[in-house]
Amino acid sequence: MIQELRFKNFLSFREETTFSFEADKSSDMEDIQIVKMNDGVRLLKFAMVYGANASGKSNLLSAFDFLYDFWSNKQTDSNEGTGVEPFLFDKETPNLPSEFDLKFYVDEKRYWYHLELNSTAVISEKLYIYNSSQPTLLFKRDLENNFSKLTFNNAAVKVSSVAQEKLELECLKNISFFSAIGRTNVDLGEIDKVHNWIKEKMLPNISPSTQMFSYAERKLYKDDNLKKHILTFLDKADFNISGINSELVKRPISNDMMTYIETSSIPENEKEKLKKDGTFDSLKTSFSHKVKNKRGEEVYSFDEFQQSRGTIRMIGVETAIYEAENKSAFLCIDELESSLHPELMEFIIQKFLENKESHSQLLISTHCLEIFNLIDDLVRKDSVWFTQKDNSGNTDLYSLIEFKGLNKMSSILKSYKNGKFGAIPNIKD
User: Fold this and answer.
1) Whole-angstrom distance, CA of residue 116 vs CA of residue 127
2) Dist. CA 194–CA 190, nearest whole Å
3) Domain with CATH 3.40.50.300 in the chain
4) Rounded to whole angstroms, how far apart are CA atoms 68 and 94?
5) What does the alpha-carbon distance between residue 208 and residue 337 come to, in Å, rounded to a whole number?
6) Dihedral sign, Cα of residue 311, residue 330, residue 114, residue 163
7) Residue 420: per-residue pLDDT
8) Count of beta carbons in the 10 Å neighbourhood of residue 26
9) Would you put residue 11 in left (φ > 0), alpha (ψ -120 to 50) or beta?
10) Domain 1-203+329-429 carries which CATH code?
11) CA–CA distances in Å: residue 50 to residues 18, 76, 318, 353
12) pTM, rounded to two decimals
């Protein structure tokens, strides 16, 4: 589980910024919203961030997504960039490194990951473990003469000189150490545990433009338990869908598709088979809708193109949340309310929080004001964050609990609309 992320000089965040899942002292909804670690740290399962358009909400989620992409980057050309985007509304910051510090738990053990990089190379990368109140270094990676230099704490991780040389050769200046070790079979003990956590517990961001249905369709085809879950979820949400049916069908390969296949990295034997057959396997999914009319109860079948955007979005989002819950993973959803009614958004959050068995975490951005009315009933105050951009273009991130007198406010929503917390559009006359 994630404790906190500190970062600076990334997208609209010029100054060092901290986002935290660590709960305050309040015991509100502790049984469903908080997971307590062995060291006593209490971590929230859910958080959300509000703000005006272009205030930096999405950029907070992008900071997590950057780490996900960077850790899994498989590029082999050291001349390609790192992919990091510094703060650009300044003459100095584009030439300064971006920094990330992530503190998280794997099997109840606390770790601290540090990354410093610019657009062309990683300057520093470190991993610590907390066996006590003080961190113990597991490895560090520095840039020397444009090449990666690795140093291991031999008391914690034993690495032979041959294995270290192999890792340094794989660790190109523009990729993560975790991407490099994925190309080797070196045993790295505690570091491997973190690498497995990265691969299994960090999920890619979902944005309003993410094409969710093909992802959900593949999962639904392979997982009957997921299908049952989605059907139950849709029934409770009153979508009137009684069945989901998926099958593999043969589809013809178009000329444009064949051109793509010929230039792709698909194995040659598979290319030849596709050329010979002239078809490819594709999933076809239909939805059964049960209706009642003067003839009684009838069932009609429709494909995904005949479903509403809200239905498709709901299925995709809930499939991703189901995966996060099953893996006890971390998931970001940008603008959760996109194509969804506010009450459906509330229903999604409620069902996520009701799963006490999972140690999954969900971070969302939203414009949905109705959620303010759920604070203290469904959402804890320390789960609410705001973003506000100043005149220099820098985003300020802050928590609701930084404000005094919250318990005396008759309506947090009204206070927000009145500008008490900032993070609202500045509409000029």
Assistant:
1) 12
2) 7
3) 1-203+329-429
4) 22
5) 9
6) negative
7) 87
8) 14
9) left
10) 3.40.50.300
11) 16, 39, 21, 19
12) 0.92
Residue 172 CB contacts under 8 Å (≥ 6 apart), including other chains? 75, 76, 78, 148, 180
**What is residue 107's predicted lDDT score, i.e. its pLDDT?**
95
Give residue 152's pLDDT. 96
For residue 411, the model assigns a pLDDT of 85
pLDDT for 428: 63
Residue ranges in the chain whose pLDDT is less than 70? 427-429
Task: Specify the long-range contacts of residues 353-357, CB closer than 8 Å, at least 24 apart.
Answer: 353/29, 353/32, 353/33, 353/45, 353/46, 353/378, 354/32, 355/325, 356/31, 356/32
Q: What are the C-alpha distances in Å from 54 to residues 66, 336, 390, 428?
A: 18, 16, 11, 16
Phi, psi of 381 (to 5 degrees): -65, -35
Tokens for 266?
């698909």
Query: What integer pLDDT is reported at residue 429 of this predicted model?
Result: 57
Beta strand 135-144 pairing with 147-152: antiparallel
